[in-house]
Specification:
The protein is α+β, with helices and mostly antiparallel strands. It is 26% helix and 38% strand. The protein has one domain: Hotdog Thioesterase (Thiol Ester Dehydrase, Chain A, Roll).
Length: 140
């Protein structure tokens, strides 16, 4: 069984994401993590809307880490590598590595999401059936 699968996507830093010095404002790295999660979801059929529309479950973030390594500026390209980390717990865990155009690590991070019954606002503490099926399909 595979322990992880990943996606790589590229973005270009927009002007609105930079501070007055032309460097990416620190809070935007969290947005880049979201870009990575969305690209991963499209590739592996586990996007936010896919989950909600078929199960009425939400997957809110409950933890996020971000470690900055290098500055990135306006117009630069960033590769966002998003890795799914398999766990037995009822969680979706991703690890992120952002690379600049020179393939240097710019930032690393991690996020944890849980399953929530969107109508009842109740935490789901066991893996939903769809998630177990998804893991069997993509991790073996």
């Amino acid at each position: 069984m595979l322990e992880t699968i990943s996606n790589r996507t590229e973005i270009t830093v927009r002007f609105s994401e930079c501070d007055p010095l032309g460097m990416v404002w620190h809070g935007n790295y969290i947005r880049y993590f979201e870009d990575g999660r969305e690209a991963f979801g499209k590739q592996y059929d586990i996007g936010y809307w896919d989950i909600y529309s078929s199960t009425k479950l939400a997957v809110p973030l409950v933890h996020i880490e971000c470690d900055y390594k290098k500055f990135v500026g306006y117009g630069e390209k960033i590769i966002i590598e998003t890795k799914f980390i398999n766990t037995a717990a009822a969680k979706i865990i991703f690890e992120y590595t952002l690379f600049n155009e020179k393939n240097q690590i710019v930032c690393t991070g991690k996020s944890i999401q849980v399953f929530l019954d969107a109508e009842k606002k109740e935490l789901i503490i066991t893996n939903p059936t769809f998630f177990e099926d998804w893991k069997k399909k993509h991790l073996g």
